[in-house]
Design goal:
Blueprint (H helix, E strand, L loop, with lengths): L4 H20 L1 H33 L6 H32 L4 H30 L6 H4 L4 H15 L7 H4 L25
Helix pairs in contact: 1-4, 2-3, 2-4, 4-6
Length: 195
């Protein structure tokens, strides 16, 4: 069976992503991912401390504490991403200009190609969810579809939680669990014993 349009799109995206990553270099791509991960970790770790400082400003929009938490996380994320990116850019420039620059660019192409395949796998995951039946032939008969669906299935398994909690609940700090106050405690409606 010949390749379909879907296979062609996959190959095209992998090549484009690979070439872009090759131009930037593997070290720069990897350090870029590390920068985003560091910013996300910092936002997750420190937003409870920053949220009270942001709350007076977000209160003008909404008194909801979640708005203040999101604003605090966004500020921390942006600041850390900017600072870490400036540092990693210097490191990446040094590596690209060094003797291992050619190897760095070759690895960058491989990294970019894999990234392109991952993006298509995620897109296919959502497409299968939105259009489970009657998919066009160029999608349903694509040679690459079983492989991409396998990758998507592995992603879903990594995100699943055996306790049935959502992603937000899984990553919420343990101290942030809300418990009903004494005033909100359910009243004992059992009838008083006679006699």
């Amino acid at each position: 069976m010949p390749i379909t349009l879907f296979d062609g799109i996959l190959i095209g995206l992998m090549l484009v992503s690979g070439v872009l990553a090759m131009i930037r270099g593997f070290s720069r791509e990897l350090l870029s991912v590390a920068s985003w991960a560091a910013a996300a970790f910092a936002a997750y770790k420190f937003y409870p401390s920053v949220s009270p400082m942001v709350a007076p400003y977000t209160a003008q929009i909404s008194s909801n504490k979640t708005i203040a938490d999101l604003a605090a996380a966004g500020i921390i994320f942006a600041v850390v991403l900017l600072v870490v990116s400036l540092i990693t850019m210097r490191i990446a420039d040094f590596i690209v200009d060094s003797r291992i620059g050619a190897l760095d660019r070759s690895l960058g192409f491989v990294f970019g190609a894999l990234r392109g395949a991952l993006l298509v796998a995620v897109a296919l995951l959502f497409y299968n969810w939105l259009v489970p039946d009657n998919q066009p032939g160029w999608v349903a008969n694509a040679k690459s579809k079983p492989v991409l669906e396998s990758i998507g299935g592995n992603i879903v398994q990594m995100l699943e939680d055996p306790d049935g909690r959502s992603l937000i609940e899984r990553f919420k700090p343990k101290g942030d669990q809300t418990t009903p106050s004494d005033g909100d405690a359910p009243e004992d409606t059992a009838p008083a014993p006679k006699g």
